[in-house]
């Protein structure tokens, strides 16, 4: 084999190798293409994450709105129930007061009737006896109403029950002793209806 033939064969082999290298290079993406592809892949991942986060936030917002609506509805129901309770309580209070007044007047009516009859009596005899009999019914009436009279001569002065209208220095009486009652006091339970007006010694 001559040197010329060897040289031609070598050139053919070199050309083929170059062509194969070019084809391989064309088939393999460049670094720039690789980087761009990676960037596109990363962008899709970020977009997917963002969409997922948005969906989670929307779900959370929906739950918060639902809870807020339930709380608002509950508040409105409580407000309505309280308003009904307040109105019902006021009605009951008014009814109790009306019943108390009616019961009180009902017990006093016999006394008023007797006084009315006494005022029409023109005969002068025994008027005092008649009035005394009428007055005897007063304690029974007060007892039915759970009212108790107080303020008697000889009692110890108590500013919680008595009002001192006058004061007298007198060694015959003890200190703070009531020597005269101008007007009796009345109470129901622990509630004072009216203080007794009295004169106090020493």
Q: How is the topology of this model organized?
A:
Layout: H1 3-27, H2 31-119, H3 127-136, H4 138-144, E1 148-150, E2 162-168, E3 178-183, E4 185-188, E5 191-194, E6 196-201
Parallel strand pairs: 2-6
Antiparallel strand pairs: 1-4, 3-6, 4-5
Q: Could you provide a short overview of the structure?
A:
The chain is α+β, with helices and mostly antiparallel strands and 202 residues long.
Report on the architecture of this protein.
With 202 residues, the protein is an alpha+beta fold. It has 2 domains: 36-145, Hemagglutinin Ectodomain, Chain B, CATH 3.90.20; 148-202, Nucleotide Exchange Factor Grpe, Chain A, domain 2, CATH 2.30.22.10. 65% of the residues lie in helices and 15% in strands. The chain contains 4 helices and 6 strands; from the N terminus they run ααααββββββ. The protein has helices at residues 3-27, 31-119, 127-136, 138-144, and strands at residues 148-150, 162-168, 178-183, 185-188, 191-194, 196-201. The protein has a 3-stranded antiparallel sheet with strand order 1-4-5. It has a 3-stranded mixed sheet with strand order 2-6-3, with no helix packed on it. Strand 4 and strand 5 form a beta hairpin. Helix 2 (31-119) packs antiparallel against helix 3 (127-136). The longest helix has 89 residues, at 31-119. The chain is elongated and about 165 Å long. The model has no long low-confidence stretch (mean pLDDT 84).
């Amino acid at each position: 084999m001559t040197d010329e033939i060897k040289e031609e064969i070598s050139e053919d082999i070199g050309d083929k190798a170059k062509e194969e290298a070019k084809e391989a290079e064309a088939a393999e993406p460049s670094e720039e293409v690789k980087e761009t592809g990676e960037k596109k892949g990363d962008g899709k991942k970020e977009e997917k994450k963002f969409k997922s986060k948005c969906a989670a936030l929307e779900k959370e917002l929906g739950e918060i709105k639902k809870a807020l609506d339930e709380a608002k509805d509950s508040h409105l129901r409580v407000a309505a129930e309280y308003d009904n309770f307040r109105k019902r309580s006021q009605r009951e209070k008014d009814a109790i007061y009306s019943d108390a007044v009616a019961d009180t007047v009902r017990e006093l009516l016999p006394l008023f009737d007797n006084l009315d009859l006494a005022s029409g009596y023109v005969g002068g005899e025994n008027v005092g006896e008649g009035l005394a009999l009428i007055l005897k019914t007063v304690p029974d009436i007060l007892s039915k109403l759970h009212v108790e009279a107080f303020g008697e001569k000889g009692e110890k002065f108590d500013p919680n029950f008595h009002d001192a209208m006058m004061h007298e220095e007198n060694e015959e009486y003890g200190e703070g002793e009531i020597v005269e009652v101008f007007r009796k006091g009345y109470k129901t339970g622990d509630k004072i209806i009216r203080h007794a007006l009295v004169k106090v010694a020493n």
